[in-house]
Design a protein that fits this description.
Blueprint (H helix, E strand, L loop, with lengths): L5 E2 L8 E4 L2 E5 L10 E5 L8 H10 L6 E6 L4 E4 L9 H8 L5 H16 L6 H16 L6 H4 L1 H4 L2 E2 L10 E4 L12 E3 L17 H13 L3 E3 L10 E6 L5 E9 L3 E4 L4 H12 L1 H12 L3 E11 L6 E9 L2
Parallel strand pairs: 7-15, 12-14
Antiparallel strand pairs: 1-3, 2-3, 3-4, 4-5, 5-6, 8-13, 9-15, 10-11, 11-12, 14-15
Helix pairs in contact: 2-3, 3-4, 8-9
Length: about 325
């Protein structure tokens, strides 16, 4: 197949490479820095945006661009016989974040592609970055690109309303939607609900913490153990591929708003320290000092309907 990718030497030198005397067109490369990995492509292919690249991987996996690497000592170019990607990009999200809802997985993959390439279109640097991230997931190793490894780090920061005398603060949730940008994470109820059951109503804080802990652990996160009964439901957790720490308060809502009770900061600190324990508090304080403590809100959103209540398990990021 690669024989058909050979092109005439009349092509401009900026978008072709010569390997073993044959000329190939390349995926756009970062001109500012020399790269040890480039990608040759079928010259009939237009630039790859996310949808084009996903369709290629889904329907014509073996027609994807191939990596070319330099071999010392003379640094000649050779074509890597391995496929850069084993499946569509969303397939990696499904494998490593299996309980996220399908539309969340798709939005996450699209955003990951755009961030890796710093563009709507693929380039050599972006393709290599994506491969590195997928290897980090597979090996559970720290990544050079932490933001690309975690959908929670890609979420936009939502504002919490200002504190007014006599009123609780609130946060407005983005509407759950199958289209649009990644604004919230939603989990697929089919992973934790038999088809015959309606969406769960969890009124007990301990049960809510256990429920959300299970969701997180089944999607690759490590949850710090709570030491005592909570003064309010929350979970603290992390992920192997980066050193950010997540602190998530848990909520139940039947509207688009989360109500955030007014709490005395001093009482809050004491109660939280007693509940979480010194080890967890140290991890949070160190992350805070390094600007790597991420504030989240999550839980159950139950929406009214004409038949039985429907709902979703959600996570959003806030600015507190």
């Amino acid at each position: 197949m690669l024989d058909s990718w050979r092109i005439s030497p009349a092509y401009a030198a900026s978008d072709r490479i010569t390997i073993d005397g044959h000329h190939y067109q390349t995926v756009e490369n970062d001109k500012a820095r020399r790269r040890s990995i480039i990608y040759i492509k079928d010259p009939r292919h237009r630039p790859y945006d996310f949808d084009t690249f996903e369709n290629l991987l889904f329907f014509h996996l073996h027609e994807q661009p191939r990596a070319a690497i330099q071999i010392p000592p003379d640094n000649h170019w050779t074509i890597d016989p391995r496929l850069p990607f084993e499946k569509p990009l969303v397939g990696y999200a499904i494998e490593f974040f299996p309980e996220l809802r399908a539309d969340t997985q798709s939005k996450f993959s699209r955003r990951q592609f755009e961030l890796a390439n710093d563009s709507y279109f693929a380039d050599a640097r972006g393709l290599t970055t994506l491969r590195q991230v997928f290897n980090n997931w597979k090996d559970k190793t720290a990544s050079l690109h932490p933001v690309l490894t975690d959908p929670l780090l890609m979420l936009p920061t939502l504002p919490v309303s200002a504190e007014l005398a006599g009123f609780n603060r609130s946060l407005q949730l983005p509407s759950p939607s199958p289209t649009g940008p990644l604004a919230r994470l939603d989990f697929d109820p089919s992973f934790f609900l038999p088809p015959s059951r309606t969406f769960p109503v969890i009124a007990d804080d301990i049960e809510l913490m256990k429920f959300m802990t299970e969701r997180l652990e089944r999607n690759g996160y490590t949850v710090f153990p709570a030491r005592s009964l909570p003064s309010f439901p929350n979970v603290v957790f992390k992920r192997a591929e980066h050193d950010f720490i997540f602190f998530m308060t848990l909520h139940r809502t039947e509207t688009q708003d989360i109500i955030i009770p007014r709490i005395n900061p001093r009482d809050f600190g004491i109660a939280l320290s007693n509940q979480l324990g010194r080890e967890t508090m140290n991890a949070m304080e160190n992350a805070h000092n390094d600007n790597k403590l991420i504030s989240l809100r999550g839980g159950i959103q139950t929406l009214p309907s004409h038949d039985t209540p429907t709902g979703t398990v959600f996570i959003v990021r806030d600015n507190t």
